[in-house]
Amino acid sequence: MFATFMEVLDTTVVNVSLPHIAGSLSVSVDEASWALTSYLVANAIILPMTGWLANFFGRKRMLLGAVFGFTAASVLCGLAPNLSTLIFFRIIQGATGGALQPLSQAVMLEAFPPQDRGKAMAFWGLGIVVAPMLGPVIGGWLTDNYSWRWVFYINLPVGLASVLMTRWFIFDPPYIRRSNRGIDYWGIGMLALGVAALQMALDKGQEDDWFASHFILVCAILAAVALVAFVIRELRARDPVVHLRVFKNRTYSAGVFLMTVLGFVLYGSLLLVPIFLQTLLGYPALDAGIAMAPRGLGSFLMMPVVGTVLGRFDPRKVLAVGLIVASWSLYALSRLNLSAGYWDIFWPQFIQGAALAMLFVPLTTATMDPIPKEEMGNATSMFNLMRNLGGSCGIAAATTFLFRRQQLHTMELGAHVTQFNPAARMMSKGMEGAMIARGSDPFQASHQAYASIWGLIERQASMLSFVDTFLAMAIVFLLVLPLLFAMKRPQSRGRGAAMH
Asked: What's the pTM?
């Protein structure tokens, strides 16, 4: 869990520090954002290959190398003298970090008997769910009080502890030994090209206005062609780098799709809430990070409870309750307005955090239940890849939907502000009168009144766009409820239950 927590924390902790990184290295914020994109691209490329790499090099050797490489790259990122060097070390950090989640998850699932996997996943899941909430808070505090470089240095003690514990306590099972099978170079190449192009299109799409950008269009075409060719290649290859036939299992396929949707909504809402707090309610960056803590608190308190009771209940029922409660929490966020106080934001997020515990733990346990142990590494790598890609799609969809709805609401509200509208005319005259009374000349007062009214329109339009986006995400959770019927009930329930 140490290794996973460190890796997930690093995906969010840098976001808050971007303006400081840009200023320190004398580049624009857009240029500095490549420090995020390069990490995500390298991470996404390695994720699906983790199972194959563990079989090729040996799991313990692979895990040790990944933790050590991630920790060393973190320190080198903190020492980077310019942006090019930072991006280079971020690529190494992303590549080594991509192996940490699926490897540690596979180790946890194999180390515990089926009836105890719920408890194990609950403890391990704390790192996955809580780290994205702590990232902005820790990043903001370190950057404000010390330097953006400490955002990377904090990985050193955690990484060293993880290396030592991995060396002492983790061993390869008998069916995982260094493989002498052939290497599917074509498969690796097509996978790397397709996933990298897809990740870059998703990360930069809204910023470059999607297919209006030649770069985004080329990335999308490359991703489509390379990934289709990769699927065809892997289904025919003698020694595939990714065993896609695992998707023949109905429960696994449904679970992976549900995890993709969970990543879509989780990362999308994680992006929206701090933007809403900072742009509309005026929260400073650090206060916005602290205001998001209730979600982590809800997950932290609920994870052990879910892990304990999971053996007594059908995981599909727990998942259904989690989806409904998570949908309600997003609906509650869609009912906020510009007068919202701290507690109006606290409770929906706290309840959403508790719902995420009811989603993550049973979904992981139920999805991996029918997978043989020798396929666990491959299955967990695809499971984590789809969660991350779902998160990238969620962020891209949320920002695009938010921007488009804001444009629509601005046009609709602005259409009513004319000289023929009595209410608008009265408001304008009132503002002009107040400004003239304060010493402004009539011409200047008229322009200031118009600018003030337009500012009110944009603020209300922005609020309405957040309402629409939160509501759309709530509906997404409800739409995937029927998929639970595609999953089989796990047979590994209760003490000593056998795994089918």
From this structure: 0.74
